[in-house]
Specification:
Layout lengths: L2 H32 L8 H26 L3 H15 L8 H26 L1
Helix pairs in contact: 1-2, 1-4, 2-3, 2-4, 3-4
């Protein structure tokens, strides 16, 4: 399989992770600056994002493991997804929710980056 065909899933997942970070940070700025949030800043939006991330991450990371045999990406990605899910248990917009969510997103994005790099070799 050619290089672009092997990495598009990891690239898409990293893009989704980036959008999540932007969403979390922008929501925090809105909360701090305006003390008002709209419909796109609630837990339902986060649950939808997580529902998209789960199958995309599972497919991409497991596909990569078949190529490079380094299971650390599934552990790193799994911890990231677990933190993203755990963030839904905290009050929306709280510092804890934001910190747990962003930490999870960064771990998942790191897993995809490693997966993409290791799949090339």
């Amino acid at each position: 399989m050619s290089e672009p065909n092997r990495t598009w899933i990891d690239r898409s997942a990293m893009g989704l992770s980036g959008l999540c970070v932007v969403h979390c940070l922008a929501g925090s700025v809105l909360l701090a600056g305006l003390s008002v949030t709209g419909g796109l800043w609630n837990h339902e939006f986060h649950a939808i994002g997580l529902a998209l991330a789960l199958p995309l991450a599972a497919f991409a990371l497991l596909r990569g493991v078949r190529i490079h045999q380094r299971y650390v990406v599934t552990v790193l990605g799994g911890v990231g997804l677990a933190l993203m899910a755990a963030s839904l248990m905290f009050a929306h917009g709280s510092v804890t929710e934001i910190a747990v969510s962003i930490t999870g997103v960064l771990l998942l994005a790191s897993a995809h980056l490693l997966n993409m790099r290791w799949s090339r070799h």
